[in-house]
DNA sequence: CTGACGGGTTGATCTCAATCAAGGACAACA
DNA sequence: TGTTGTCCTTGATTGAGATCAACCCGTCAG
């Protein structure tokens, strides 16, 4: 696990012009508070594949994603893996009230994060109801997404799973201003499989089927939704 | 949808000797605050099968479960159902920041709840960081449970699903002081199936298998874990 | 240029859980 | 007492997705 602090060579990126501000918890803070929070945070970078923290380890920091994608996953003893989600810029990682990390997180491509020591962040938050409110809200959105994912895992077919995943991913990206014609998929097929409760072969076959049916077009870096309404219908479960 | 307010005939149950206090959000409040909160809450009761609120309806209240069990579920247009969880005494229902109910909730057996108008609760909470902190914590625990359930849905066999469910249910009950030799299962087989991403037949068969193998003994009202270590091993995924 | 490797695709076969179908246990009720 | 309905169980068969296996393609090292 390599941590590299953005050091001397790099410009200090002030929170003020942070690209993830607006989606992140920081949105709940005023200028002064922002500076105070910046004081106790530091910017860290992880290269592709690096582990940011591991399941069951003691959590000493919270993180706010600044740039890049992370996969958040849980492992069973026999190494079956479930990716419980992908974290994007603005997402907050870490749960006050739980001493240990509840899942592992590693970088999908290069990632930068704001790191906050748990203790000082908690102290900082304690007297700022609007920050706590924001955290309740973020947790609520996360919970809603988790529930939606349970429906996917428990009750949808492979084709619906893939379509739902693509639509959900598109909507999340556009929510943070990263919408576009081509939908980038930085994660590997195996990651998608472990996220959707499928095998890599089924994911591959299903992508092929959707392409054959003219719903998507696949590229090395992602897909284009040729027939978004059809994908949305599949995603909604209106087979 | 029948709502019956506990009325004249019934004793007013003060929050002070509420059996769910201690697990519920109220635990974060002192005596004075508790009385204030009681002021803006009312006790409501639902008979078995009654719907407390429905998915996509506008949320006007928050609830704290006082007694009984609720099933929380999402429906697909074609009526496939995923039960995202069961709520027990002390659980908080409703997410600040989302205008609509994100799932439906109905009573499994008779249920009583504390109902708080959303607005007045929000106003009350706004100035009480320790209450907000408690809500963040509760949301965090809920999220952790949701993640664990994703592993179950995405990566476990039918037998492991049932074993995990039983162990998880036992632990939750004992966490609220309802542990005991016999593990009550107030929900129906169909509920369990829709919670675990199985069919009712597979649930039934798997219970039968576990009973044949001497892991459990089934009764009308629940099960006894004859071989808890074996069930725990299955639950952990150490097949 | 060649071989090894990682990531992805495709085909053949198998298996676990779904589906289809029947019947049992039990409570509510006429 | 028989009738009806709900819930649960069990058996037979099917099928979606897993597994096993082969192969393609681009990249990188030697």
Describe this structure in words.
2 copies of one chain form a homodimer. By secondary structure, chain A is an alpha+beta fold. Chain A folds into 2 domains: 4-152, Jelly Rolls, CATH 2.60.120; 157-236, Winged helix-like DNA-binding domain superfamily/Winged helix DNA-binding domain (Arc Repressor Mutant, subunit A), CATH 1.10.10.10. Helices cover 39% and strands 24% of the residues of chain A. Chain A contains 7 helices and 10 strands. In chain A, strands 1, 2, 3, 4, 5, 6 and 7 form a 7-stranded antiparallel β-sheet that branches. A 3-stranded antiparallel β-sheet of chain A has the order 8-10-9. In chain A, β9 and β10 (222-225) form a beta hairpin. In chain A, α4 (158-175) crosses α7 (228-236) and α5 crosses α6 (200-212). The longest helix of chain A is centred in the middle third of the chain and has 27 residues, at 129-155. The radius of gyration of chain A is 19 Å and the shape is globular. The relative contact order of chain A is 0.13. The model of chain A is unreliable at 1-12 (pLDDT under 50). At the A-B interface, β5 and α3 of A face β5 and α3 of B. Chain B binds a DNA duplex (30 and 30 nucleotides) through α6.
